[in-house]
Amino acid sequence: MRVQRFSSRAALIFGLVAGCGHPSAPVARAPAAATGLAAVTVSFPQANPGPPLFSMLDPLFIPHTDRWAPIVFLRDPACVPPNFNLLDQANPEDAFACGLRVEGHATFKNGLPPVDLAPIHVTFRGLGAVAIWFVSWPELQGAMADGKVTIAELAALPSLHVGSASLFESTQHPGSERPQGFGNGKIEIVARGTLKGGGTFFVQVREMGVDQVSVLRHITVELTPR
C-alpha cells in the first residue's frame, strides 16, 4: 500500500495554515543554511491554530488490530458538524472554532509555505483530556464502505467505547521533505486513560514507510472495561 505520512491533504493544509500564522506570534528559526533557507518551527496552539482537523481518522492509514480501531480526536467530538465526512479530514472553518485538546509543534525543513508545503516533523501532546473512541475494526470498515463516516455513524456503532486520555503523545515524520523521500516517514502514538462507564485503556502504535510501503511495526490496543 503506497501512502503519504501525515495525509497529503492534512499536511498540505496544515502547511498553508502555518504559513499564515498570527503576525505577532513567535516563530523559531534555525540558522540559515548556505542556500539562504532555514528550518522553521511553529508551535500550536500558541503561534498557530494547529492542524485543521477534528480527528486523526486518515483513510490512508488507520491503525487497528483485528478487533479494535482507536480514533483520536484532536478537538472536542461535540464540535464536529453532524454531516461532516471525517474521512475528508480538513475543515478549517469549523475546526478552528473548536479548541485543541493537544499542543505541539510542526517543523518545516526549508521554510514556511510556499517554500515547503508540508512539515518534516510534527508532535502532539495531550492537554489532559484527549478523546479517543474505540470501535470494532469490522464495523468501521463497514461504515467506511460508502466513502463517508460522520460522527453520528461512529456514535451509533454497537461496539463503541468512549475514552479520555490523560496521556497522549504522537510524533509524525511526513516523508515528502525527508532525506528518505516521499512515503518514507513514520507515525508513533502512545495513549492511556479511562473509559466512559469505568475501566481503562492503553494504545501504542509504531508505523514506518519503507520504500513507499506502509509497515505497521507494532500496535497494542488494550481495553479493560469495568
What labels would you give this structure?
226 residues; disordered N terminus; 4 helices; mainly beta; 10-stranded antiparallel β-sheet
Please explain how this structure is put together.
This protein has a domain at 52-103 and 120-225. Strands 1, 2, 3, 4, 5, 6, 7, 8, 9 and 10 form a ten-stranded antiparallel β-sheet that branches. It starts with 7 loop residues before the first helix and ends with a strand. β8 and β9 (199-210) form a beta hairpin. It is built from four helices and ten strands. Mean pLDDT is 84; it is low at 1-9, 21-27 and 29-35. The chain has helices at 8-18, 92-95, 137-144, 151-156; strands at 28-29, 40-44, 68-72, 102-108, 121-126, 130-136, 161-173, 186-195, 199-210, 213-225. The protein is mainly beta and 226 residues long. The protein is 13% helix and 35% strand.
Secondary-structure element order, N to C: HEEEHEEEHHEEEE
Beta-strand portion reads 35-45%
Structural class, judged by helices and strands?
mainly beta
**Low-confidence parts:** 1-9, 21-27, 29-35
Give a brief outline of the structure:
The chain is 13% helix and 35% strand. The chain has 226 residues and is mainly beta. The protein has a domain at 52-103 and 120-225.
Write the layout of secondary structure elements.
Elements: H1 8-18, E1 28-29, E2 40-44, E3 68-72, H2 92-95, E4 102-108, E5 121-126, E6 130-136, H3 137-144, H4 151-156, E7 161-173, E8 186-195, E9 199-210, E10 213-225
Antiparallel strand pairs: 1-2, 2-4, 3-6, 4-5, 5-7, 6-7, 7-8, 8-9, 9-10
